[in-house]
Design brief:
By secondary structure, the protein is an all-alpha fold. The protein has one domain: Arc Repressor Mutant, subunit A (Orthogonal Bundle). Helices cover about 70% and strands about 0% of the residues. The chain contains 7 helices and no strands. α1 packs across α3, α3 runs parallel beside α6 and α5 crosses α7. The radius of gyration is 16 Å and the shape is globular. The chain starts with a helix and ends with a helix.
């Protein structure tokens, strides 16, 4: 079982990364923040059994929360809306292009693409977190990648 101290540490470590992943999927800063806060509350109430891949667990719980529309007005943290430093401008431009490509996907496709490429989850982990079969993950990711490739070709 995960202690409250471990959750506090996890909050500091994972909040910015999972928040950015949720922004990529949900495309709404307030919805992403509410969903992530809901995920942390869910973890405090009923923590996952294992301490592995907690970032992925938080991400999936937050996406599910956003889908259910359970967003609550919780304390907004300044670091969730921090500005991009000058050193990150080039990376930010790259992320904008990726964001444009992700916008053309369904929410489910975006969630799985972000889970794989941003959070580093493998097909088995994605399937377990989303409650689907591994083949569904493979098919969804293949469809998403095909849509993104088509968009890049059309933009050229």
């Amino acid at each position: 079982m995960i202690t409250k101290e471990r959750w506090a540490e996890l909050y500091r470590l994972e909040f910015p990364r999972v928040y950015r992943a949720l922004l990529a999927v949900l495309r709404d800063p307030d919805r992403a923040l509410d969903a992530l806060q809901d995920a942390f509350v869910a973890g405090l109430r009923k923590p996952p059994a294992a301490d592995d891949a907690l970032g992925g667990w938080l991400f999936v719980v937050a996406v599910r929360s956003a889908r259910r529309g359970l967003g609550r007005q919780l304390l907004r943290l300044d670091h969730a809306r921090s500005r991009v430093s000058k050193d990150e401008i080039e990376a930010s431009l790259d992320r904008m292009e990726v964001g444009r490509l992700l916008a053309g996907l369904t929410e489910r496709q975006r969630a799985m693409v972000v889970a794989q490429f941003y959070l580093g989850l493998d097909h088995r982990e994605i399937a377990r977190h989303f409650g689907v079969k591994s083949g569904t993950v493979s098919a969804t990711l293949a469809q998403a990648k095909a849509r993104m490739r088509a968009e890049v070709r059309n933009a050229s």
